[in-house]
């Protein structure tokens, strides 16, 4: 049974959040934590597992299989919408609402570690046997200060996707190789009757929107911060500024429509009203699913920018400080659960393989690239050699403990620029000012 608790149940002010974070960092977790007693070696163990809402039936099946194989272990699963998931986790963890294992994100890892909310998984499972098996960008994404904080739930890239069938109907018979060509082709198709050839998945509360924006900036040559975490995107010549201006221009000219969430975007792409989009790659599997009206028409393209790079990202299972505080039995159970979900305790990455075959989720471990069943399944919806080529160009974005907070500002400012409320220059300056303020605050 999946239990859903309203977001408002954990409303907490910024002042309270900072106070809770300070207590946790100072060893106040035991004082804050309440609601469950520590478990001892002879006790049955209950774990609270928090996830975002995606294929919950599949998650439930994986949890049930683990419980059936581990007598005395029980897992309470709670799921929350992706667009409010991070805010919900901040509130849960800051107020010590029972949470033992959770889906984590490289974009938030530094922030969560600094607050003392998650612990290195190497304390509770043999991580070294997995280190060389994890894809480099995925390993980078789940590591902070040389410590690993999870095993991959999935790892993937942001992909540039198109529908060549619809494009051909409007006079475009080849793939674009640059952003200039994306603009030229879109203008041409619009003149021939396709109102909005481009679809952006964008909402100011959707973290995927920022990842996709950064991925497209990477394709132009760089991301949003330099190696010292100074913002570089307010420079009009920077890749990120150019991408923001490109997106704003396409929306203003009605060359592009926006969709607030991936499920909506998948449906919109299958309406035949759009040709180009940039989304997490697993959405290509959803677009080409046999139940979709235009299944089989969508293809992965190399990112159009001069560099051709994209964002590689990882989502992973983390163990919380609350689990560790409950004692060795709970911490060991959490480690065992994480390894079952993201690792190969019996030599095979069973759960990641299941996600790859059943849902088209990318994986963060190398052995699955050589698994015949996975290769066969992926070949039904994506050009596997092209996927491997784009994966080789994937890179993780630079992170600091404050970048998760900054991302909220960046999305709001981009939203205002795309709505025409402010110029791209004004939006980039406001976002850069916020980045500098946060960097100074957290030093």
From TrEMBL:
Residue ranges of the TM segments: none
Subcellular locations according to the entry: Periplasm
Domain of life: Bacteria
Pfam families reported in the protein's UniProt record: SBP_bac_1
Record keywords, A-Z: Periplasm
Major subcellular location class: periplasm
InterPro entries per the UniProt record, alphabetical: Bact_solute-bd_prot1, SBP, TAT_signal, TAT_signal_bac_arc
NCBIfam families per the UniProt record, alphabetical: TAT_signal_seq
Similarity-based family: Belongs to the bacterial solute-binding protein 1 family.
Name by which UniProt lists this protein: ABC transporter substrate-binding protein
Organism: Aquamicrobium soli
